[in-house]
Amino acid sequence: MIIKNRKFDLRIWVTVTDWNPLTVWYYKKPYVRLPAHDYNPGDILNNFSHLANNSIAKYGTENNNKHEIEGNMMFIEELQELLIDQHSQDIYEDIIEEKLKTLIINTLESVQDTFDYKKGCFELYGFDVMIDEEFNCWLIEVNSSPAMDYSTHITEKLVK
């Protein structure tokens, strides 16, 4: 899916407080990460139009973007509004959010037997997920100990 002429992914924070039984806490406010450049399918080598990771996007500056997006991030509510405007329905809450939860649970269940853990401890993960035009969710990667710094105005508000 393309929004504001750009690819995007969601960073979703997930806390696992127990692996057996699997106990998962899903932070209901993921944020939207966008590449620094507008999407151009003819320019496959331009990392700034294909990669939404902030450690890459923060170096991409371009003056001909159709939409300026401060810090290359948005709050999930802005994505929801864009989807409501396009589809006259809250696609995020009605369709996508449940698919995200299923993806997270399936991912964690697939590895839960491989973890040695201590009771009373927890682990924070950052799930990076893309969404296609049919609202399917695609896991890019799971980050253990995801960055929790104030890299943009979006992360500053959420991390606090």
What does this structure look like?
The chain is α+β, with helices and mostly antiparallel strands and 160 residues long. The protein has one domain (9-159): 2-Layer Sandwich (D-amino Acid Aminotransferase, Chain A, domain 1), CATH 3.30.470.20. The protein has five helices and six strands. The chain has helices at 47-50, 54-57, 76-87, 91-111, 153-159, and strands at 9-19, 22-26, 31-33, 73-75, 123-131, 137-144. Strands 1, 2, 3, 4, 5 and 6 form a six-stranded antiparallel sheet that branches. The protein is globular, with a radius of gyration of 16 Å. The model has no long low-confidence stretch (mean pLDDT 89).
Descriptive keywords:
alpha+beta, D-amino Acid Aminotransferase, Chain A, domain 1, six-stranded antiparallel β-sheet, 5 helices, 24% strand, globular
Order of helices and strands: EEEHHEHHEEH
Give the termini distance in whole angstroms: 30 Å
Number of helical regions: 5
- In the CATH hierarchy, the architecture is 2-Layer Sandwich
Task: Give the overall shape, derived from the CA principal axes.
Answer: globular
Can you tell me the CATH superfamily? ATP-grasp fold, B domain
Category from helices, strands and their pairing: alpha+beta
Low-confidence stretches: none
Give a quick account of the main beta sheet: strands, pairing sense, barrel closure. Answer: 6 strands, antiparallel
Write down the CATH class. Alpha Beta
Mean pLDDT across every amino acid position: 89
Strand content: 15-25%
Number of DSSP E strands = 6
- The radius of gyration computed from the alpha-carbon positions, rounded to a whole number of angstroms, is 16 Å
Helix content: 25-40%
CATH topology: D-amino Acid Aminotransferase, Chain A, domain 1
Number of domains: 1
